[in-house]
Amino acid sequence: MSVNDVGGRRRFEDSEYTLHIYPGSIAEGTIYCPITARKTSTAAEVIDSLINKLQLEKTKCYVLAEVKEFGGEEWILNPTDCPVQRMMLWPRMALENRISGEDYRFLLREKNLDGSIHYGSLQSWLRVTEERRRMVERGFLPQPQQKDYDDLCSLPDLNEKTLLENLRNRFKQEKIYTYVGSILIVINPFKFLPIYNPKYVKMYDNHQLGKLEPHIYAVADVAYHAMLQRRKNQCIVISGESGSGKTQSTNFLIHHLTALSQKGFASGVEQIILGAGPVLEVR
Predict the structure, then answer these.
(1) Would you write out the chain's pLDDT as a tens digit for each of its 283 residues?
(2) Domain count of the chain?
(3) Where does residue 218 rank: exposed (0-12), middle (13-18), buried (19+ CB within 10 A)?
(4) Feature table: binding site
(5) 143 occurs within a structural domain
(6) Is 19 exposed, middle or buried (0-12, 13-18, 19+ CB in 10 A)?
(7) Annotated binding residues for ATP
(8) Dihedrals φ, ψ of 42, to 5°?
């Protein structure tokens, strides 16, 4: 075995996975709780994370159970078992959360003082887990409230799925702007939003990037004041596919920059610059 093989194996062991643990009646209102774990993480470590995340009573004893179909037999994991390793043995369709005849999942169960497992009533289990989960998936119940992040760099679990979900949640709230550090992501709403009036020009005047809700005015304001302070030319790059809103974003930038430079005095500069736009766009 080469040194590269050892390094590759170590990186594989350190890879993080997300486990979806269904607490059932133990945590009312929670469909599932995502827990980040490694291949070597034990069931005891995952349970500790669940207790902290769901704020469960630490005086009680909990166990993890693996089930391969709804209503099927539950396999209780030993404290030293590794849930991620067991999950990696599941069929691909189960790992991709596709609808199939088998329903693989991990459940959180409470252990009684005599060593038996407290399953709770079937009615409660149906109401809190399976029935509610399927109704949420079909759109009959609202999705659980999730915190949206105005900067994607602040996401606790950064991957393609969480990134897109965060952008989607913000878009549904008509928050079309999101930061990635100093970069601004804009999702075209294809309708006018009342966030470009003089009140917003004044609101974003001379504010540090990230202090307020993401906005294209914030980018223009930072560039404008950096030009004044450093006495150097500034550049704002706008990129995107056809129809993504580049021209309109340019208009908003020019509007804010002229408003800052003119300080409320109408000079016609903005209209002159905007009028040159169609000529500049011709290739």
Answers:
(1) 333 444 444 554 568 899 989 887 788 777 788 999 999 999 999 999 999 998 888 888 999 988 876 555 678 899 999 999 998 888 877 776 544 444 688 889 888 777 776 655 444 444 445 555 666 666 665 555 567 889 999 888 888 888 998 999 899 889 999 999 999 999 998 888 888 888 888 899 888 888 899 999 999 999 999 999 999 999 999 998 888 888 888 888 888 888 887 765 545 655 666 565 555 554 4
(2) 2
(3) buried
(4) 240-247
(5) no
(6) buried
(7) 240-247
(8) -90, 165
State the Cα–Cα distance between residues 77 and 44, nearest whole angstrom.
9
- CATH number of 50's domain: 3.10.20.90
Q: Are residues 189 and 258 in the same domain?
A: yes
Range of the domain at 57: 3-137
Q: Dihedral, CA atoms, 87, 92, 96, 101, nearest 10 degrees? A: -100
Structure-block tokens of residue 173? 């709230």
- In this structure, the answer to whether residues 157 and 125 fall within a common structural domain is no
Listed residues 103, 137, 171: the one ending a domain: 137
In a shared domain, residues 167 and 63: no
CB contact set of 20 (below 8 Å; sequence gap of 6+): 32, 33, 34, 35, 105, 106
The reply to whether 85 and 181 lie within a common domain is: no
Output the pTM of the full model. Answer: 0.48
